Amino acid sequence: MTPGGQLLHGKVALITGASSGIGAAAARHFADEGAAVVLVARRAGLVEEVAERIRKDGGRAVAVPGDVTRQADMEHAVAMAVARFGRLDCAFNNAGYASAGTVLHELPDDVFDRTLDVNLRGVWNCLRAQIPAMLPRGAGSVVNTSSVAGVRATSASAPYVAAKHAVIGLTRAAAAEYGERGIRVNALVVGSTDTEMMDGVLSAGPPVGAGFGGKAIQQRLADPTEIARAAAWLCSDASSFTTGSALAVDGGRTAK
């Protein structure tokens, strides 16, 4: 454990998708574990509320409205981390977009484009902005949010399954390319989680909803904080010999 008993004591972390769900839970948890957090999300008012709550609780947080599909927004977020806190130690690339309930041949092109842009290009944009900030120090840890849909077909849409598979591939490629330069890159294989995005997926109706949560060994949805804890561990020095991994945090969904 680091000084003060905090897992991320003294670290600077960037978290995307931080206005709600897993991202907001990670923002609070990372701050509780001693990190200064830079919070990125499209919804400026909501992400500022998350940052303000952290500051009121004695933490260090800054909100940076931005869209992961825009490279310039991610470069700006990293620049803000360096300007406000002096460096960037770790990042949790968590922003996502999901859909379900429509079979592949009936899915509109705009849904395919949005799904790949947010879930895959978003991670690509984040990595390209974050890694250059870490290279001069020869240290850093990046965690990308994948999904059970990243290792098998699920009830989610085909583009979502494809994008989350690609996130794991991109994670492993980045881990291989930058491992000798001190940067670790890992992915989380996240199971169904009680979030705003999941609420939207479940609204498609019982046939779709039946494919989530109930198939896990634990027979429930995750609380967002349970995912945040795993991300914090991967961002911390406690996971120093872990890179290129796809860590399942899925209630046992992929064990069956």
Sheet with most strands: strand arrangement? 3-2-1-4-5-6-7
How do the helices and strands follow one another from N- to C-terminus? EHEHEHEHEHEHHHE
What is the helix content?
Answer: 40-55%
**Average pLDDT level:** 94
Largest sheet: 7 strands, parallel
Instruction: Tell the overall outline.
Output: globular
| Helical segment count | 8
Poorly predicted tracts of residues: none
Kindly provide the radius of gyration, computed on alpha-carbon positions and rounded to a whole number of angstroms.
17 Å
Secondary structure class reads alpha/beta
Kindly report how far apart the N and C termini lie. 34 Å
Strand tally, please?
Answer: 7
Strand content: 5-15%
Q: What descriptive keywords fit this protein?
A:
256 residues; alpha/beta; seven-stranded parallel sheet; globular
Sequence-ordered SSE layout with sheet pairings:
Layout: E1 12-16, H1 21-32, E2 36-41, H2 44-56, E3 61-65, H3 71-85, E4 90-93, H4 109-134, E5 140-145, H5 158-178, E6 183-190, H6 196-202, H7 206-209, H8 224-235, E7 246-249
Parallel strand pairs: 1-2, 1-4, 2-3, 4-5, 5-6, 6-7
Helix pairs in contact: 1-2, 1-8, 3-4, 4-5
